[in-house]
């Protein structure tokens, strides 16, 4: 059985390894205020991870990765639902994410494509937005939004 839990400090190296394995950006992934969840087997093996950065009224979902052996088991959706449920419970009203590779997936689970400028305006001070702005990556990104109700 695989359970979704909040990441603990000893999970961070494993999260970084999974993100690198998936060729995802790892700059600022452990910035202060960023929260992670992991999908973990009963034996403690890391199967998947996801993170979230927090603004005033919105959150930025980031760093979703699933090891190949665990794909097709619904772990990505379970991680997204857990993260968004916690954000909603804490009073956040909007969730955003960047994705150029998983557009169809995010649309299927209720995200709508929005201008990158909307995301950047809603979350100007979160680490991933600041990093993308600093390295000139914002114009080439695709932004996604979902209301948290």
Can you give keywords for this protein?
Aminopeptidase, 31% helix, 5 helices
Rounded mean pLDDT score: 95
- CA-atom Rg in angstroms: 14 Å
Helix content range: 25-40%
CATH superfamily placement:
Gcn5-related N-acetyltransferase (GNAT)
Assembly classification: single chain
CATH topology: Aminopeptidase
User: What CATH architecture label applies?
Assistant: 3-Layer(aba) Sandwich
**Stretches where pLDDT falls below 50 for ≥5 residues?**
none
Tally of individual helices: 5
Q: What do these coordinates show?
A:
- The chain has 149 residues and is α+β, with helices and mostly antiparallel strands.
- The protein has one domain (2-147): Aminopeptidase (3-Layer(aba) Sandwich), CATH 3.40.630.
- The chain is 31% helix and 29% strand.
- The protein is built from five helices and seven strands.
- A seven-stranded mixed sheet has the order 1-2-3-4-5-7-6, with helices on both faces.
- The model has no long low-confidence stretch (mean pLDDT 95).
